[in-house]
Amino acid sequence: MSSRAGIRDVATATGLSITTVSHALSGKGRVSAKTRAMVLAAAEELGYRPDPIAAGLASGRVGVIGVPVVHLDSRHWGHTYRPYYAAFTAGATMLAVEREHALVVVPAAPGSGMIRRVPLDGVIVVDPEPNDAILADCLRRAIPVVADGAPLDPGHATVPVIHSDADDVLRTLLDRLRATGSRRIALLTGTEADSYTIDTDRAYRAWCAATGNPPIVEALQPDEVPEVAAKRLLSRADRPDAVHGLNETYGEALLAAARRLGLSIPGALRVSMMCETSEDKRWEVPLTVISLEAAERGAIAAAALIDVLAGKAADRLHVPTRLVIRASTG
Amino acid sequence: MSSRAGIRDVATATGLSITTVSHALSGKGRVSAKTRAMVLAAAEELGYRPDPIAAGLASGRVGVIGVPVVHLDSRHWGHTYRPYYAAFTAGATMLAVEREHALVVVPAAPGSGMIRRVPLDGVIVVDPEPNDAILADCLRRAIPVVADGAPLDPGHATVPVIHSDADDVLRTLLDRLRATGSRRIALLTGTEADSYTIDTDRAYRAWCAATGNPPIVEALQPDEVPEVAAKRLLSRADRPDAVHGLNETYGEALLAAARRLGLSIPGALRVSMMCETSEDKRWEVPLTVISLEAAERGAIAAAALIDVLAGKAADRLHVPTRLVIRASTG
DNA sequence: GGGTGTTGCCAAAACGTTTTCTCAAACGCC
DNA sequence: GGCGTTTGAGAAAACGTTTTGGCAACACCC
After folding, report:
1. On chain D, which bases lie within 7 A of the protein's CB atoms?
2. Looking at CA atoms only, how far is residue B191 from chain A in angstroms?
3. Angle CA(A289)–CA(A291)–CA(A293) in degrees, nearest 5?
């Protein structure tokens, strides 16, 4: 009467035990049809709704998978990570929903304990860092994990990972730039230590070593705006004739810096970048992009995790990266 | 040793009581600095992680807000609702995360009990139906609700609602079409009973009554593809000279039907539609759209709900709808 | 009429925390 | 030395389910 009806109230109302009510409602035990009908009627009448938290505690499952967002305190959250997360989680969410799972996006900046406060059955970790705290946490809590990007800590070798052929595609792009005349192809990148940044840098340098392209890397300095780094890169004595940006932020910065320096694109400078989608965003110059297909990756990750939770072995995870050639590279 | 460490293990390890350990970890009771340090050390050593479900049960809060997705079993899920939900939840999620809340998207098709199984502190209901089951459920569970679209059931008058000026903007568009020569402006709509469909239909008919435009409404029949309805509308003896589509699906259907019937746009037929975003999607003809700003609405809804959960009164909720005129209306 | 099941129900033990209430000891004050 | 207050800690009661194990009662079969 006072507060919401609990299972106890239904039991009292019907004169049955809590056990029998639970069985009748969940269909798990052995209950006569007559009794079940009685319970259902009483539950309906009382407006009884089982408390999901209590049920979760007792059964050990809540039916929710989580995506921690770790870059909230990063300088680049708004420009870089937010769009990627938005696309990734949108894809993951829709797939999860279609497969009868709920997906929760949890703020998980290092300080905030949010990720530890939210009930979860499984977790998708985006771009794990070396010695990733969240990853370690999940293993401790015995929560299944799927990673988007390679888990760098060797101890986590058992975690399913979405591999990406972004590096291959990057090589393809660089090859193409070189084949069509560029001789000083540079990389504009960031200083964060996520696997995405690290892998890209490594792939670029390896390609340089293999082809003889001079490795020209400009990295954002702390507390610096991307455009400043872009301008510094384009003002070097040995100015590059083509630049690949780590993501949309750096791509935009390159466009802005080139405009300011009076460099025509693609005449004086060829520009490309990585991007979470292959959609044409209509920059001032149509931009050549390596599309990471964030939404699709999210969907794949969610599907894999749901498989794991259901006891199935996860299929080999792979999302084809797309190369879209547009006018900015001639 | 066998399974994960619980608070009990920490208590045993330190020789303290469970109460003191809990106090030391949460900082709530009175614990000496020395004892706290001891507890922290032991917890760290054991790799203790409090169980969020148990904590939630005891404290009554889990820190999660939910968005139920109710149209999963609708014919129109893939074409219509999915994009709207994807944009809406992406907006809501990012805002929630930035304000230290987790947002979970829950499949809630009438049959599935998912929404009842997920622990939630608050809920955002998108486009409530008359006599909305989810809305009723939340009120019974005493869960705060924010609605995107008007709650039609008078009993739910207390629920904060995101008002929309979509109807005003629709009138503006219709006025403009009429002012520039259209005399037979039709509406291509659906048969679902959500508030969005109902409100639009009502606004259109009211406008017709006020201006003398003949009300020409074509609604999708059950198990019919939108294009068939569009073709039927455009094949009428009293063919409209302008049509507004309820959403992107109907807009596309209109384009396809017009093409098939050899009607030039905007020469023989002017076309507009509602849309979740004002972004140019590059249809065959640049389309005049009423943009509902789904992502922004999601963000506003999340912000309002978080305010309510924090005890603040929700501000008046309003998302300006945008009218984007493009070539399809001449 | 003694086995052998099966059916319908219940008591009680988890589940792992938070929180309330109580208590003893230490402390400060006149 | 008596008295009130503060401090540090603990026992036990929630929180609201699910699940385990058991117990009558009834049915069936030779």
Report:
1. 7-12, 14-21
2. 23
3. 165
pLDDT in tens, B187-228: 999 888 887 889 999 999 999 999 999 999 999 988 888 899
Q: Which residues in B lie closer than 8 A to residue A55 (C-beta atoms)?
A: 117
Distance from CA of A92 to the nearest CA of B (A): 10
Residue A125 near residue A194, CB atoms below 8 Å:
no
Mutate which of B40, B64, B80 to test chain A, going by most A C-beta atoms within 10 A? B64
pLDDT digits (tens, 9 = 90+) for A129-144: 878 888 888 888 888 8
Judged by C1' against the alpha carbon of B22, the nearest nucleotide is C18
Chain-centre distance of CA B214, in angstroms? 32
- On whether the CB atoms of residues A122 and A144 are closer than 8 A, the answer is yes
B117-145 as b/e: b if 16+ CB within 10 A: bbbbbbbbbbbbbeebebbebbbebebbb
Q: What is the pTM of this model?
A: 0.83
Q: Order of strands across the sheet with A270-275?
A: A216-219, A185-189, A242-245, A270-275, A288-291, A322-324
Q: DSSP states of A52-87 as a string?
A: HHHHHHHHS---EEEEEE--TTSTTIIIIIHHHHHH
In the numeric block, the tokens 């006018």 are attached to: A327
Structure tokens at B48: 């203790």
The pLDDT of A151-166, averaged and rounded, is: 79
Question: From edge to edge, which strands make up the β-sheet containing B185-189?
Answer: B216-219, B185-189, B242-245, B270-275, B288-291, B322-324
Nucleotide nearest A19 (Cα, C1'): C10
Among B271, B277, B279, B267, smallest CA distance to B253 is for B271
What is the C-alpha radius of gyration for chain B, rounded to an integer number of angstroms?
26
Q: Does residue A290 contact residue A273 with C-beta atoms inside 8 Å?
A: yes
Would you call B117 and A62 a contact, using CB atoms and an 8 Å cutoff? yes
CB atoms within 10 A of CB B222: 6
Does B276 or B194 have the greater pLDDT score? B276
Nearest nucleotide (CA of B18 to C1'): D10
Q: Which residues contact B13 (CB under 8 A, 6 or more apart)?
A: B42, B45, B46
Q: Supply the DSSP symbol for B112.
A: -
Q: Bridge partners of B319?
A: B164
Task: Test B107 with A100 for CB contact under 8 angstroms.
Answer: yes
Within 8 A of A54 by CB-CB distance, chain B residues are: 57
Rounded Cα distance, A251 and B29, in Å: 52
Query: How far is the C-alpha of B87 from the C-alpha of B67, rounded, in Å?
Result: 13
Which phi and psi (to 5°) does residue A105 adopt? -100, 120
Question: Within an 8 Å CB–CB cutoff, is residue A56 touching chain B?
Answer: yes
Would the CB atoms of B102 and A118 count as touching at under 8 Å? yes
Work out the burial of residue A159: count CB atoms within 10 Å of its CB; fewer than 13 is exposed, 13-18 middle, 19 or more buried: buried
CB neighbourhood size of B320 (10 A): 12
Q: What sign has the CA pseudo-torsion A163, A168, A169, A170?
A: positive
Q: Give B197 to chain A, closest Cα distance, Å.
A: 22
| Crossing angle (nearest 10°) for helices B52-59 and A52-59 | 140
Backbone φ and ψ for B295, nearest 5 degrees, come out as -60, -40
